[in-house]
Every structure is written in C-alpha cells, then in structure tokens.
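Please go through this protein, sequence plus structure tokens, and consider how the sequence yields the tokens. Keep your notes short.
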Amino acid sequence: MFKERVEISLRRAEIADVFELEDMIHLSVWELGRADYSLEQVQSLVKDVGGVDLNLIEDGTLFIAEYAGQIVGCGGWSRRTALFTGDTGSHGGSQATFLNPAFDAARIRMIFVHPDFARQGIGRQLLEFAELCARQAGFSHLQLLATLTGVPLYLRAGYEMVERKTLTLADGMNVTAVMMEKYLD
C-alpha cells in the first residue's frame, strides 16, 4: 500500500556523505529485504552490496534524496560496466570500463530508500532522475540488476525482466536477482 508522496530535494552525493549513505543503505536492505530474502541472505546482501560505489560519486552520477535535512534515499546511473557495488567478477573485474552510448546500455545503480519513507514515491523520483541524466548523456537503453525487493518498482516504471540470476556473494551466499532493461522513447 502506498503512502502519500513525499516531496524531496535531490543533490549529488559527495565523499562526505558515504558513512551516512551506507547506514541508510544497510537499514534499507535489512528492513525491506527481509520480505524477499532469508535472514542469512539479507546479512550477506548488507555486506556485499551495502557499500557506496565511489566511482559513482567520482563520476557525479549518484544522487541523494533529502527530506527535512535527512537522507531518505539514493540512486543514480553509470556509464561503467558494473551492475552493482559488489560486481567485480561478471564484467572482467573492472568497474573502470566505460560503456559507449551508441550501442551499450547505461546502468541504473544504487536505488535505495530509507524504510521509514518506503512507498512514498522516492524510489520512483530517483529512478526518473537517473533515467533523465542517462538520456542526456546519450544513452537510449538502460539495464539494471534488481533485488527481488526492487522488481515491483522497476516493473511499474516500464522495465522488462530479462532473466533471473543466482548471484554468489563474496561470502558464498547465493541470492536471486533479476536482470531488467528499458528502452527510452
């Protein structure tokens, strides 16, 4: 059930935000992820994907949603190959490889919302802004790797499920995720 939409302000994430962002991300994964994953899987997800990808901050493509001075969400996009923060193996181990907008899909990355602000339109606002930025950078195709928790948001935003994947996290835990994509008009 959706609550009333919250009006947020967006700004670029900075290095000084990393600790507060990671606290919010951990809380988001911990609280919201338990509906879709076991306790052990959530613990592994917090450790493996709960960090901030500093490349996104360096590239200026990670944004923070604030409400009344509090970080209530984050999200962005990337022109790099990595699909998620813990992605070091599926793309040759290099997050520094840049994508070409002429034929590659930009990556939607790190859409997390504080659990106290879930289902108030914050994730959707972050996603729409990331899509706009990727479009302005010349991309017409977007990809993301969604947790099961995020799939409903992405489906409502017009993404299509490409395939379910079993990810083996750094500690050996397996979790299900869904590769999704969207073509921009």
